[in-house]
Amino acid sequence: MKFPGRRKLKHYFPVSSPKPQLPSFEVRPELDTYVVGLDQTIVDVLANVSDEFLQKYGIGKGLSNLVEHGKADQIYQELVQSAAISDHFAGGTIGNTIHNYSVLADDKSVLLGVMSANIALGSPAYHYLCHTSSKVDMNHLHGVAGDIGRGITMITPDGERTFVIDPGAMDELSADAIPEDIIAKAAALVLSAYPLRASGQPIQQAMFRTLELAKRHGVPVVMSLGTKHLVEEHRELILSTVRDYVDMLAMNELEAAALTGITDPLQAAEAALELTDMVLVTAGPEGLYLCGYTDASARRETTNPIKSGALPDYNEFEFSRPMQKKHCVDPMKVYSHIDPYLGGPERIKNTNGAGDGALAAILHDIAANHFHRHALPLSSKHEQSYLAYSSFAQICKYANRVSYAILNQSAPRLSRGLPEKEDSLEEAYWER
């Protein structure tokens, strides 16, 4: 029979070739390169409502309202019945990051968190699975009896956004559900500061067990700070956690100011380097900063125009590759900055997730370094114990490009990778 579609000009089933091994969707620690993320699993719901609807349920307009599960479910069911819901998105800052990493790398990642043991059609868990890449291994999620978290964004006719947060069972991740073998062989572990506010909940103990395992096995730890208010409320706990466990910190300029007390993003990043080895600060229309350490013997001068701001000539050595400070004989701080890609989208459709997209790009570069080091350990690329494969400047370009892709769409998760060939304007950008 003739098969439909276009085929290469060779026998479609070569009988002389050995049968290929079927692909495995589950991560194999000894064979695969992957990153691990720990998150509070939550689904974001977008709905259009009236002011009367908010008053009926006693919801504070324009605020973030933490609502008990029974009341939140009643609100959700009425939204469903009145066809007020416009969309569902799988949420969570680390869930977004892990998904985007797998889309960019076209490779596996592992998500740790909770998932409803019984998934009904249309439930939060159902929508979470539907909007997550098949490359994300969710076989290690911890089954719970209840629903995962649900965040309802209610938009009134005046455009005001009001939030209803239903935690569900998202904080019930047990420390016993953290698989040591998966953590031990990971290229990186990524998590957010959100579980630090879940005082007395199982997920906080699970988070610290995960951090301890990563530290024991020498796995780089990347932390996203979450929100400015979270940092302000739990600053001391966040500071101690970063000092003890974190190798890279990701935050926006408001979170950086709340953490360090410094409003200038570059100076805040410099101060954060006293806590950790690498810092990403996204600063909205100002672009993004990537800062870290390298050994003085491995420093490389930039050929880009020299920039001065709060620090003079701060990007002079941005062609250097990132290293952990403990691996440097003579550590020196390196700073890089990039303006928004192509000036930013003509129309920003969504700001949620732009920082998560940038972080996914950096994780991809860290994972690429991990893969190359194991595949070609004698390569000159590994004469030093580098944390990432590319230079600070090149990582900035990649992170910036992914942020643009997120800002240019309506959802925080990429549906596909970046285009393989950019148009002429974009090619000129990459050549700069």
TrEMBL record:
<dbReference type="InterPro" id="IPR046405">
    <property type="entry name" value="IngK"/>
</dbReference>
<comment type="pathway">
    <text>Purine metabolism; GMP biosynthesis via salvage pathway.</text>
</comment>
<protein>
    <recommendedName>
        <fullName>Guanosine-inosine kinase</fullName>
        <ecNumber>2.7.1.73</ecNumber>
    </recommendedName>
</protein>
<dbReference type="GO" id="GO:0016301">
    <property type="term" value="F:kinase activity"/>
</dbReference>
<keyword id="KW-0808">Transferase</keyword>
<comment type="function">
    <text>Catalyzes the phosphorylation of guanosine and inosine to GMP and IMP, respectively.</text>
</comment>
<keyword id="KW-0418">Kinase</keyword>
<keyword id="KW-0547">Nucleotide-binding</keyword>
<comment type="pathway">
    <text>Purine metabolism; IMP biosynthesis via salvage pathway; IMP from inosine: step 1/1.</text>
</comment>
<keyword id="KW-0660">Purine salvage</keyword>
<dbReference type="InterPro" id="IPR029056">
    <property type="entry name" value="Ribokinase-like"/>
</dbReference>
<dbReference type="InterPro" id="IPR052700">
    <property type="entry name" value="Carb_kinase_PfkB-like"/>
</dbReference>
<feature type="binding site">
    <location>
        <begin position="39"/>
        <end position="44"/>
    </location>
    <ligand>
        <name>GMP</name>
    </ligand>
</feature>
<dbReference type="Pfam" id="PF00294">
    <property type="entry name" value="PfkB"/>
</dbReference>
<keyword id="KW-0460">Magnesium</keyword>
<feature type="domain" description="Carbohydrate kinase PfkB">
    <location>
        <begin position="133"/>
        <end position="292"/>
    </location>
</feature>
<dbReference type="InterPro" id="IPR011611">
    <property type="entry name" value="PfkB_dom"/>
</dbReference>
<feature type="binding site">
    <location>
        <position position="400"/>
    </location>
    <ligand>
        <name>ATP</name>
    </ligand>
</feature>
<feature type="binding site">
    <location>
        <position position="197"/>
    </location>
    <ligand>
        <name>GMP</name>
    </ligand>
</feature>
<keyword id="KW-0067">ATP-binding</keyword>
<comment type="similarity">
    <text>Belongs to the carbohydrate kinase PfkB family.</text>
</comment>
<feature type="binding site">
    <location>
        <begin position="92"/>
        <end position="96"/>
    </location>
    <ligand>
        <name>GMP</name>
    </ligand>
</feature>
<feature type="binding site">
    <location>
        <begin position="282"/>
        <end position="287"/>
    </location>
    <ligand>
        <name>ATP</name>
    </ligand>
</feature>
<feature type="binding site">
    <location>
        <position position="355"/>
    </location>
    <ligand>
        <name>ATP</name>
    </ligand>
</feature>
